[in-house]
Amino acid sequence: MPKQGIHPNYTDMNVKCACGNTFVTRSTHKGDLTVEICANCHPFFTGKQKLIDTAGRVERFRRKFEKSGAAAK
């Protein structure tokens, strides 16, 4: 059993996102928390994330990879 009186007090807290999503979690933080982005609105989790190929880096990598012969293996 853990020692009494030395561990932080975990309490339920409400988290509210800028998108309007709210959920309850447990934390040592006192009061409610407001965040700018959550799992419901983050592009990575929603599948709306777009990879931007700046300066043709992806295409340059593919050409280099094909030349090395590693693509054939």
TrEMBL record:
Belongs to the bacterial ribosomal protein bL31 family. Type A subfamily. Its cofactor is Zn(2+). Part of the 50S ribosomal subunit. Keywords: Metal-binding, Ribonucleoprotein, Ribosomal protein, RNA-binding, rRNA-binding, Zinc. PANTHER family: 50S RIBOSOMAL PROTEIN L31, CHLOROPLASTIC (PTHR33280), LARGE RIBOSOMAL SUBUNIT PROTEIN BL31A (PTHR33280:SF6). One of its GO terms (molecular function) is metal ion binding. The keyword Flavoprotein does not apply. This is Large ribosomal subunit protein bL31. The gene is rpmE. The keyword RNA-binding applies. Zn(2+) binds at residues 17, 19, 38, 41. Binds 1 zinc ion per subunit. It comes from Terriglobus albidus. GO terms for cellular component: ribonucleoprotein complex; ribosome. InterPro entries: Ribosomal_bL28/bL31-like_sf, Ribosomal_bL31, Ribosomal_bL31_A, Ribosomal_bL31_sf. Binds the 23S rRNA. GO terms for biological process: translation.
